Amino acid sequence: MRTPIIAGNWKMNKTIREAIQLVLAMKDELDAIQGIEKVLCPPFTALSAVKLLVAGSSIKVGAQDIFWEEKGAYTGEISPVMLKELCDYVIIGHSERRKYFGETDEGVNRKVKAALAHGLIPIICVGENLEENEAGLTEEVVTRQVKGALEGVPAHEVEKLVIAYEPVWAIGTGKPATPEGAQAVIGGTIRKLLAEMYGEGVARKVRIQYGGSVNPANIGGFIAQPDIDGALVGGASLRAKDFVEIIRMAAQVKSEA
User: Among this protein's residues, is 94 annotated catalytic?
Assistant: First the structure.
């Protein structure tokens, strides 16, 4: 059984003070929910504060990006050595990194390897944009991104990581994929590809999330799908009530399955 994982990607939001307020508003309720792995991904500036606040609870912490070198003349970058004291997970290859900062499949691959080498668990984001979706290129794009991200990564490491299927056209638009559509990509493309690359045993162990306009009203439909193992939540993770409700709903659906 794969333990569902729901991560809140705060993106470039929340000062340290605001981050503390948000965590305090939901920490106790989140901690009480069982059966779901819960991850908060604040901006770098708030990682230390959030780490201290959730210490001793069942809540994990994740970073939003990483650089592949351990140290050096890379102004503005954050290394895996710096992050491993502060978090358990790291988001890699988010569509916003690819779009605004020119992140490539090769760069994603280097970051994935760096994270794994230092005991951090990557949450690798893949997904097609609207133009690619409408052109029927979803499978081709997602396959290329998964293969690129995992190039040279051995099976025993792949088992640990998380993949987040985030169709770019659904992120922040309020227009999510349908649960059935997300399942078709996650089960029919991503998990099938992992089986071809690493064997069925590994493919069954990898947790694959859906991301893109996830909210309390639709999480149940996604989590009920056989191959969807959670969600990478954006805007709703900035609202304590909504994020708690998303995780509560997910736990309820899984417990009834």
Answer: yes
Confidence of residue 52 (pLDDT cuts 50, 70, 90): very high
Per-residue model confidence (pLDDT) at position 173: 86
Residue 72's contacts (CB-CB under 8 Å, 6 or more residues apart) are none
Please give the full DSSP string across 123-160, using - where no structure is assigned: EEEE---HHHHHTT-HHHHHHHHHHHHHTT--HHHHTT
Q: How far is CA 5 from CA 68, 105, 138, 158, 251, in A?
A: 25, 24, 24, 16, 10
Q: What is the pLDDT of residues 176-207, one digit of tens each?
A: 899 999 999 999 999 999 999 999 999 999 99
Q: Count CB neighbours of 23 within 10 A.
A: 23
Please indicate whether residue 156 is annotated as part of the active site. no
**Of 37, 94, 96, 157, which residue is the catalytic one?**
94
Instruction: Specify the amino acid at residue 244.
Output: V
What is the set of domains in the chain, with CATH numbers? 5-256 (3.20.20.70)
For residue 57, what are its two tokens? 């609870």
Point out the catalytic residue in the list 37, 96, 128, 166. 166
Q: What is the pLDDT of residue 171?
A: 87
Q: Give percent of the chain above pLDDT 70.
A: 100
